[in-house]
Description:
heterodimer; A: 14 helices; globular; B: alpha/beta; Rossmann fold; 4-stranded antiparallel sheet; 11 helices; 22% strand
Amino acid sequence: MDILNALVAILNYVVIPATAYGAQLALGALGVTLIYGILRFSNFAHGDTMAIGTAITILFTWMLQSFGISFGPLPTALLALPLGIAATAVLVLATDRAVYRFYRVQRAAPIIFVMASVGVMFVLNGLTRLLIGVDERRFDDGTRFVINAREFREWSGLSEGLALRGTQVLTVVVAVAVVWALFWFLNRTRSGKAMRAYSDNEDLALLSGIDPERVVRLTWIIAAGLATIAGVLYGLDKSFRPFNYFQMLLPIFAAAIVGGLGNPVGAIAGGFIVAFSEVAVTYPWRKVAGYLAPDWQPAGLLQLLGTEYKFAVSFVILIVVLLFRPTGLFRGKSV
Amino acid sequence: MSVTATTPAETAAAAADAAHFLSATAMRGGYGKADILHGCTLNVDKGQIAVIVGPNGAGKSTAMKAVFGMLPLREGRVTLDGEDITGLSPQDRVRKGMGFVPQVHNVFPSMTVEENLEMGAFIRTGDIAATMEQVYELFPILRTKRRQPAGELSGGQRQQVAVGRALMTRPRLLMLDEPTAGVSPIVMDELFDRIIEIARSGISILMVEQNARQALEIADIGYVLVQGTNRYTDTGAALMADPEVRRTFLGG
């Protein structure tokens, strides 16, 4: 019985939150890795693209709610998501037209693109705050729990409760669907294959008659979609605060680099590696230890790192990977 | 040059251009200020194999790039099937019927063999299955490896993918930049056999080769370039027989 309690505790406090968080990071890292593979630079504005995409989606959600539209047990934000993605895609394409295309025509070095993206990041940062403010906002409605901790305790007879929130299930379901659609697009369609060809060998893609500007536009639209979906899922799961999205840049880049920049499968694996490390390292294991070894009375919480230091986990993973396997676990491009 | 009055010499030159399928005449140009090509001329007839040989730094690859429009020309002109293409971009030349296989980075490494061939046919709108079948018949090994990423193949197989990719547009002129660089002698012979087969199907071939002797053996016409200009031009067999050419360029 104690082993079961320990398992439920691990499931409840580590596996479920880390899976949802990992799916959100994976979607973010997919956007970063696609841009790196095709436009060949690390897009520092990706976190704030997520923020503004989410902010726009929240505005559309409020609009729908004011019309009295809801999505039954599911959050209304899901209905607003396509509108949010479309608006974000337009914004990102306009940014490309105004900023990045200038450097692309000049065939500027990647570091110049990175610096330009830092500038875009600050502008998007300000725009988001102008649009929706700096406050924390909760915009999830619909059914809160799929499994309720109290009901689970009554049903199972265990002393440990298990809670599964609707947004966590939604995150995983949407992430799986999006990843499936993305891989189908990249591997089965002519445009997707053209994107991969361009990522593989730009010169040969040109010789084959692939239009580079079309590939670039498609990449931005997909990246905007991935960023908005990742941002909205994160906001539904936790809450929306613009600053959090800026901070998420670090774990997202860690995930993309761990998996191998430019490699979509790697980005997904990297997202889960970073999420599980972060949650496992900052979780106080005392409760689980209490079930498994009742005689042992540890003095501390058995928490390796305080939650306020969770970003250190991403840093450590990043440094270890860059030192020992710079191309990442799935053979991406060297940084 | 005036449009109304053409000198007899110009008329003769134009007639000569029209006589050849590909005619690159008196090309002059380079990457920076200094020219690499100093009046280089290359002609290829329908179904012919033309081979460019010469010492390192003679401008062989540069001449190929100039013919394909990857190098701006200061002087000279390029015609394909009688049509002046001097001002066209490489992409437009592909549409006009030129295929180019670069020396390195000539496949999409993470994509499968079949996807490489598909990307080769990107500009085509109709059914490409028949052309793909022809490529598989020409290079049977590619059929068995068609689901494998091109980057995982051996050097010789990768060259076959590269040539196959260029054939997918159904070019009338195929340009190969050192197709046998870095492959074993057996694979080299095999590749040359395939190139002869391609030429027999009516496609003109223009290639640069490091393995000069073997390449001249299959050449209908050979160009020996030295310092960006034509030194010797003759049939492959005649160049092989010329003691001067043998001594200076073919190592005795």
